[in-house]
Amino acid sequence: MARSKAVFQNLPTPPKAEKKPHSDTHHGITRTDEYAWLRADNWQAMFKDPSILDPAIRTHLEAENTHMEAALGDTADLQKALFSEMKGRIKEDDSSVPVKEGPFAYGTLFVTGGEQPHYFRTPRDGGEKQVLLNGDKEAEGKDYFRLAGLGQSSDHSHGIWGYDDKGSEYFTLRVRNLATGEDLEDVIENTAGGGVWAPDGRSFFYTLQDENHRPSKVFHHIIGQPQSADRLVYEETDPGFFMGVGGSLLDDVIYIDIHDHETSEYRLLSTSDLTAEPVLVAEREEGVEYSMTEGGEIFYILTNADGAKDFKIVSAPFNAPGKENWTDVVPHEPGRLILSHTAYARHLVWLERREGLPRIVVRDRKTGEEHAIAFAEEAYSLGLHGAAEYDTDVIRFSYSSMTTPSQLFDYNMATRERVLLKTQEVPSGHNPDDYVTRRVMAPSHDGELVPVSLLYHKNTKLDGSAPCLLYGYGAYGVTIPASFSTNNLSLADRGFVYAIAHIRGGKDKGFAWYENGKMEHKQNTFRDFIAAADHLVKEGFTSYDNIIAEGGSAGGMLMGAVANLAPEKFAGIIAAVPFVDVLTTMLDDTLPLTPPEWPEWGNPLDSEEEYKWIAAYSPYDHVENKPYPPILAISGLTDPRVTYWEPTKWIARLRDRAPEAGPFLLKTNMAAGHGGKSGRFQRLEEIAFEYAFALKVAGKM
Q1: Could you tell me where the beta strands, DSSP code E, fall in 355-448?
Q2: What are the angstrom distances between the C-alpha of 582 and each of 85, 208, 349, 564, 626?
Q3: Which of 20, 37, 131, 263 is deepest in the core (most CB within 10 A)?
Q4: Rounded CA separation 492/434 (Å)
């Protein structure tokens, strides 16, 4: 790590957080946290009004930002160059291909210099654009602004749109007259974002976030009434479950979806009687998941019931969708993970993953004949966009690889004709032949093979001298796609190998890949990532003193864990909104995501065994005097998912316990939450900042 020390010379003295030891005891085990005071007591209120943050905490965060700026001040020109490159690869005045629905087609566009999307519609078969919502105009004067989309009513007269202007993910809903562009007086506060129209076009359903930021209630709002008059449709009293509300393509049912990370339950409200009580489909059963799509007189249900670990599709009568009436339609096939499904008048469609690669399967509902849409590259990404109308033979899907810009297709399920609608334009130019994409398999500690997707320039020497940015996530069953990113080209053009480690905790190789990276098996995730680094070194793609690891959120926890387990194998680490104080957070059931997260990590409040699982790896609890590489942590002050105090405490403890290692840098976005800044170019500035750190550590400035 001599080089990393050399590139961070003559740094000013970093901030030193005051120690105020606080102890807690669970299951007879006592821990002491000297930095617990950095957690604001009034965090619920502060998320809505950041100005009330404790001045002592604010002073410390601002001092950390000042120190970070001093440490990375010499990358200012590099950041500008990276930003310019990335911005040059984006078509500024871009527009989506509108989606047909009724008499119109709806889409989004960006204008030159604009940060926010504009929502528009045209006549169904083309014509003049009518801008329905100008995101740039709505964002004027706000430090942070994020739209929750625009949902039009069935009669196309009104739209619901939502926004968050704090970064705290409490969304305000407004109702817009789509003909005039004027908002009505209706203002719905503290929602989860978005709503679902009733067919009458005069009312809609939404979920309300409680004071602990949990979507616990579904309300029915009638236009013109105050929010206080809204009818409570359903309340979820178990704090361990999330809740959402959705609608069907046929507009005759409202779905209330209740779930945690391994169990789900649906309740249905017929739109023929909006005052009725929602009807339970199948009572929640621990470990059993299901999701629904309407197919006319039947429902198609995607589920892992009856031991279908990689999921199957069943059908049930529309008027009697209970589990006792479920009939297999697409049987369970081990190793074939069904990810999502949707139904249309004549076809059933699903997205599945085999051997780590996705494909779309179409079944004729009348004949049962099936065919698949797949591609031949070693690693690629496939997105099923479907259609906005039920009576259609045409669906939409997207395709890209790490070298191939995104392509959008319309696909006729009956004739099997595919029409290329749009290819992602790279204004500054892009030649796919200049780059190589590969997928290699890294043997992990127990013999499992971990897929690793690679992107590098064709002229990059694979003799161990190339720097590498190794990205990982590994949680919640999330699969990181091997998709095209114009931003990664800035690294590849500078000689980097960009790598994605498809580690356990995701569903990259099926549902078992997820199960074997959670709860008591969580350490497989970390060891898989280290195995990916080892394999890349062994095969000559890079060397240990050239690997910069990167991950965010749960992937930030991964960064903290591998820093503790193998600090000598990484030249630098980028941890964005890192979930590093896992044990403390999982012990605090007042935090927004804690009870719903217990099925993912374990419940240390109730179980000593699960306490010990988490305690064995929780990064903050294992900081010691080790040769840690330079670490950059990034957080958002109003982040409700990974609270700002986790990375703040982590950096403070790293400095205290490993004074000769690092340096350890913290950047707190004082006007943003979990996703960082909200504008499309503001986001590029953040990526340029992260990449500048990687390039500095790699000695490539």
Answers
A1: 357-364, 370-373, 381-386, 394-400, 407-412, 418-423, 435-443
A2: 37, 27, 39, 14, 20
A3: 37
A4: 10
pLDDT at 640: 80
Per-residue pLDDT reduced to its tens digit, 280-308: 999 999 999 999 999 999 999 999 999 99
Give residue for tokens 């790598």: 499
User: Has residue 308 been placed in a domain?
Assistant: no
Rounded-to-integer distance, Cα 497 and Cα 571, Å: 14
Residue 483 bridge partners (DSSP): none
Tell me the C-alpha distance between 31 and 606, whole Å.
Answer: 17
pLDDT digits (tens, 9 = 90+) for 373-431: 978 888 899 999 999 999 999 999 999 999 999 999 999 999 999 999 999 999 999 99
What does R_g of the chain's alpha carbons equal in angstroms? 25
Q: Which of 424, 453, 474 is a domain's end point? A: 424
Q: Decide the pairing of beta strands 631-636 and 572-576.
A: parallel
Rounded to whole angstroms, how far apart are CA atoms 516 and 504? 6
Contact in structure between 468 and 453 (CB atoms under 8 Å)? no
- The gap from C-alpha 630 to its chain's centroid, in whole angstroms, comes to 26
Q: Tell me the sheet residues that pair with 451.
A: 441
CA atoms of 50 and 643, how far apart (whole Å)? 13
Tokens at residue 420, please? Answer: 């290329």
Catalytic residue among 60, 213, 332, 674: 674
Residues 349 and 473 in one domain: no
- Find the domain containing 359 and state its range: 335-424
Residue 122 in tokens: 């045209």
Q: 577 pLDDT exceeds 60? A: yes
Q: How far from 563 is each of 3, 416, 547, 549, 662, CA to CA, in Å?
A: 18, 50, 12, 9, 11
Looking at the structure of the chain, the number of domains it has is 3
Q: At what angle do helices 680-697 and 76-88 cross, to 10 degrees?
A: 130
Catalytic residue check, 23:
no
Q: Catalytic: which of 315, 453, 553, 618? A: 553
Q: Annotated catalytic, 67?
A: no
**pLDDT given at position 1:** 47
**Whether residue 476 is found in the same domain as residue 413:** no
**Residues 456, 389 within the same domain:** no
Q: Are residues 484 and 615 in the same domain?
A: yes
Whether 553 sits among the annotated catalytic residues: the reply is yes
